[in-house]
Design brief:
Layout (H helix, E strand, L loop, with lengths): L10 E7 L6 H10 L2 E6 L4 H11 L5 E5 L5 H10 L3 E4 L3 H13 L7 H7 L6 H11 L4 H8 L3 H15 L4 H9 L6 H15 L1
Helix pairs in contact: 2-3, 6-8, 6-10, 7-8
Length: about 200
């Protein structure tokens, strides 16, 4: 199926490039051929480019072009910064113009593979229990005593949770859980209350 083409229109769209910036000419040519008035921002990382695009053209929707392997955290930052669509740099030919058409119509466009990546990874009940106590400042030994498990079990579940949350320390994990935007607080913090009440 050929890409949709908008005829006799100059719908504005801003492209923030966080991938191979050598693709800028190809991106401009493809969008202008489809009838879009294009502005491209490619200096700095893609989140910075999206933020500058929102400031420069508040009314024009922004497409973020990202590299394969962009982290989940950066993808979330791109959307929070104001991107209306995300295109993977290896899919420009088939996805760029359809994405531009969709965001002009008011849609949010994220490739299916990235939707799965953006979704929070499910934590097990035990991981939530342990993380809830980490947020409260408990040591591994205190968590083990509270939950009546071995300290090695606590370490195993913490390691698994760190991997799922893409964090590297207790402090970073606690900050993520408490984050009002990206946090897991609603799924973690209530457990702390029940566990500490049982331990009291």
């Amino acid at each position: 199926m050929s890409a949709p083409v908008l005829k006799h229109t100059t719908a504005p769209v801003v492209v923030a490039i966080g991938a191979d910036q050598r693709a800028e000419g190809h991106i401009r040519e493809a969008l202008e051929a489809a009838g879009f008035a294009v502005e491209i921002l490619s200096r700095g990382d893609v989140v910075d480019a999206v933020e500058r695009a929102r400031r420069a053209s508040a009314q024009a929707p922004v497409i973020a072009v990202v590299a394969v392997g962009t982290s989940r955290a950066d993808l979330r930052r791109v959307l929070r910064a104001g991107a209306s669509g995300i295109v993977i740099d290896g899919q420009l030919d088939e996805a760029l113009v359809p994405t531009a058409c969709a965001i002009i119509a008011g849609q949010l466009v994220v490739p299916p593979a990235l939707v799965r990546q953006l979704a929070p990874r499910a934590l097990s009940f035990r991981e939530k229990q342990i993380l809830a106590l980490v947020v409260r400042g408990y040591t591994n030994r205190q968590i083990a005593d509270t939950l009546f498990v071995a300290e090695s079990t606590v370490k195993t579940h913490l390691s698994s949770a760190f991997h799922k949350l893409e964090t590297r320390s207790r402090a970073e994990t606690a900050a993520l859980i408490l984050d009002p935007v990206d946090g897991y607080g609603l799924g973690v913090l209530p457990i702390a209350e029940s566990e500490t009440e049982q331990a009291a």
